[in-house]
Hints:
This protein has helices at about 5-15, 20-35, 60-70, 80-95, 100-110, 125-145, 170-180, 210-220, 255-260, 265-270, 285, 290-305, 315-320, 330-340, 350-370; strands at about 50-55, 75-80, 115-120, 145-150, 180-185, 200-205, 230-235, 235-240, 245, 250, 275-280, 310-315. The protein is of the alpha/beta class. It has a five-stranded parallel β-sheet with strand order 2-3-4-1-5. A five-stranded mixed β-sheet has the order 6-12-11-10-9, sandwiched between helices. Helix 12 (about 290-305) crosses helix 14. The longest helix has 22 residues, at about 350-370. It starts with a helix and ends with a helix.
Amino acid sequence: MLDASQVIDTLAQRGIEPDATQRKTIAALVALLRAPSRRAHSANGLTTHRGVYCHGLPGRGKSLVVDTVFELASCRKRRLHFHEFLREMNRRFVAEPRGDDRLGSVSRQWLDGTELLCFDEFHVHDIADAFLMGRFLDTALGLGTRVVLTSNYAPGALLPDPEFHERFLPTIEQIERGFTVIHFDGARDYRFGGEAAELQRFFAPLDPSSGDALRAIFRRHEGDVDLEPVTVSAAGRPLLARAAGAALLWADFESLCVASRSHLDYLDLAGQWHGLILDNVRTEWLKQAHTLQRLVWLVDIFYDRKRALFIASDQPIEAALAGLEGAHDLSRTLSRLAEMQSRAYRCTFDNTLDSTLDSTRGSTLGEAAV
Length: 370
C-alpha cells in the first residue's frame, strides 16, 4: 500500500523537496488510493471524497506531484492530457448506436476496468465539452473510479463564458462537494530558471545561422535522410513538411499553425514523431487569435507527450508571445516553453538520440576490431 513517505523519497531522489502544498496534495492522493474502490460513507453518513482537484498558476508543481503518485500507484490506472481524452470520447460517441444515454454508455465503456484516472490540464471552455464532462464525471464517480484533475482554473472558474456558465454549475458543485480541492498558490514558477539544455532548442532571429543550426540538429539525428519537401499525414489530412525522418519532423509554422489545423492534428503528429522543428515563426502571425491558440495546443500536446520542440522565430519566442491576447492558457505555454529549453525537460527524443549514438559507436567499434 502506497504511503506518503514513498512519494517524498521518490521526489528526493530527483532532487525535489516538496513544499507545504505539495505535501498536502501527496497526503490527499494517498488517502484517495487507500479509500474503498466503491463509494463509501463516513460515520456521519456523508459521502467520502472520490477525487482530488489541484488548481493554480502554471509551474507550481501540480503535475509533478500527481505524476509521481501515478507512477507509484499499483492499480489499474490511466493518465492522459485532456485533449487526448476528448478525442477518444468523441470517436467513441460517433460510433455508439443511438440510445437514451449515449454519453453514459460511452463513458462506462471508456472507464471499464479503470480504478485511478488522472487528467492533466483539465479545462472547460465550451458548452459541448461541458455536457460531455458533466455526464462523464457522474458516471465515473458512480462507478467508484478515483479521479484526479490538475487545472489552471479553480472549479468555480470553469466554463467562464457568462452565456453558459450557469448550466455547468451542477458539475462545479459536484467537484467542490465530492473532491478534495487544493489550491497551489506559490509565488514561484519552478519551470523558469533551470539550467539550459546541452542542445540549444530555440533560435532567433531567422537568419542563416539559425537555418544552419536546424540542419545540424536534423542531420545529427536523422543522418542521411533527404532534406527535401515531403507530404505527411496529420489526422488524415495532408501536411507539407520541409523534411521528415524516423523521429524528427521539420515543418513551417505557417503550415502547422497559420493554416486551419486542430489539436487532433498535433496529437497525431506527436504520436508519429519524437521531435518537431517548428520553423519560420513570425511575430506578426501570432497576433491572430486562431493562430495563437493553435500554437498553445501544439505546445501543450508536445509537452504532455514529452516530445522535443525546436523553434526558429524572428525574435525570441518568449518576447514574441509577451503581452499577446486571444488564446486560452497562454501563461501555461510560456511556462512550458521555459522548461522545454532546460536540462530538467526529459523528452523521448533524447532517448532516441542516445540509442542512435550508441548504435553508431557500436558500429565504429566493430569496424575498428575488424
